[in-house]
Amino acid sequence: MLEYWDVIWILVKKDFKIRYRNSALGFIWSLLNPVSIMAILTLVFSLLLRSGIRNFSVFLLAALLPWRFFQIGTMQATGSIAGNPSLVKKIYLPRYLLVLTNNLASFFSFIMEFAALLPIMMILGMTLTIHAILLPLVMVIELLIVLGISLGLGALNVFYRDFYQIWEIALQLGFFLSPIFYDPNIIPERYQFYYSLNPMTRIIESTRKILFHNTMPTLQDLMIPLVFGLVLLAIGYTIFHKLEPRFAEET
Amino acid sequence: MNRGSRRKPSLNIIEVEDIWKKFKIPHERKATVLETMAGALALFEGRRATFEEFWALRNITFNVAKGKSVGIIGENGSGKTTLLRLIAKVMRPDQGRIHVNGRIAPMLELGLGFHPELTVKENIVVFGAIMGLRRDKLKKQTDSIIGFAELKRFEDAPLKTLSSGMQMRLGFSVAIETDPDIFLIDEALAVGDMEFQQKCLSKFKEFKSRGKTIILVSHALDLVKEFCENTLLLSRGEMISFGETEAVVNEYVKRVRAA
Lengths: 251, 259
Prior knowledge:
The complex is a heterodimer.
Chain A: H1 5-20, H2 28-48, H3 56-78, H4 85-89, H5 96-123, H6 135-159, H7 162-177, H8 192-195, H9 199-213, H10 219-243, H11 247-250
Helix pairs in contact in A: 1-5, 2-3, 3-5, 3-6, 3-7, 3-9, 5-6, 6-9, 6-10, 9-10
Chain B: E1 12-26, H1 33-44, E2 51-65, E3 70-74, H2 80-87, E4 95-100, H3 120-130, H4 135-149, H5 164-177, E5 182-186, H6 194-209, E6 213-217, H7 221-227, E7 230-235, E8 238-244, H8 245-258
Parallel strand pairs in B: 3-6, 3-7, 5-6
Antiparallel strand pairs in B: 1-2, 1-4, 7-8
Helix pairs in contact in B: 3-4, 4-5
């Protein structure tokens, strides 16, 4: 993979440029989007429904940011093979690089969003503590999960474009099935196991512990999504590897 | 890039051994998941599948010696482009093996697919990097690519604003600049204007004189005669003959007249 380092870097930059090309506000959209969702959800949950969670906007943003990376990262990468026929049909390039670089572009976008919104979160009452040193680790574990899912979906989507639609619906459900605008403790005990099968649960919880509760994520909080990530990566790569020989015929 | 098995050093730059390639032709438009599920149910009821298989290439074997060029001729649908794609490693054969001992320029065909939203310069960087240009040298090479393509005025314009002839020129220029060992050319010259064609042809002659290999798919038989020592004649996915260009081209002309 090292021999492709230049290519990876240039493809990531390309992806990044294309995302914001032809839009006047460019990257600012990446900030306006979570901020407006935060504003609406805060309005609904702390004023109308009175969830009783103090400092709800920080509570929410700490979960929205990793969720957005999960959502955008997997969605964009699902189309990364099918949407790049010129790179698939005319030039030999290990195709997983298309998925990987797409994910990395989303990942950098995620980091920049975080960096840009941190001051806003501090203004809203967040305190940044020493626990934040674990944040990069949580983000990288999430990247593994995203990459695993993206490899599988990206390959399947070449043959059936339906996977893009299916995944879009799954993500909408996932938004409600992840502890984004509520605390996971409200889930009844007997459903907790099923609830924890969502790989994003612990990622969101870890991020929230670091930024909102100001506590360390437990070892479990990190190990469980890490195992999820590695398993998903193995499954995703297997699917990808199996389908790859026919990519050029189907794109 | 070594695939385990130690091969004895070979004088051939390309070795194609008993290649078979199968395609599926869907009988309808592409099925969705639901239709496939319905189709699978229908299969249980004994109805037939909605695609047929056909062999695009059968039993193709030939070698290209270092420094030699090969033409590939044959009627439309005879498998020429598929063969190029297999050599470029873009597709994989169902059977057989292909060894390539050198760096290949990408498939040069009509409207070489660059990214339409990126500018000419950005496209050069992306494709140059994929084709193995070093990042530190790319800056200088970008200028000579733009120069050769005569696109100085358009260097910061999105690619989509260029005409197809201009895009083809850009494709050629990038490929030429990467200085590959093997050129795969698929009818692409047809788009450029006379002047650019001449420029490319003289560039190719220069490449040939430096011992590089050109694999040329073309219906322009005099071009094949000019560049290729050997020629491969395909018909319906089968190798009709492979040998000296003059003889093979004559055979092709005879076959066409007889038909």
